[in-house]
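Q: What structure does this chain adopt?
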Amino acid sequence: MINRKLLTAAALALAAGTSFAQDAVTHEQDRSANQEHRIQAGQADGSLTPHETRKLQKQQRKIAHAQRKAGADGVVTAREARHIDKMQDKASHDIDKQRHDGQTD
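A:
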């Protein structure tokens, strides 16, 4: 009886952890897509110069690489997630800064 309860609890914890990890990955993918959209909008409206656009897109490629590397083993650790989140925060700040710096295409 105890073994069955333990197995059930372990299965529920594993399922919850997997769901959480999938939610975190989906959130980061959505965030990356949103940032790419902001870069494209800046390029389209002329608020980003070609140089700024290339630099911001390179930053997005590095984030994508970090996401792939973190998920390569099937587990994104809390440390890896924090690192990616900090990269996303910096990218978001950089996009905003470059779009509002007064330089035009």
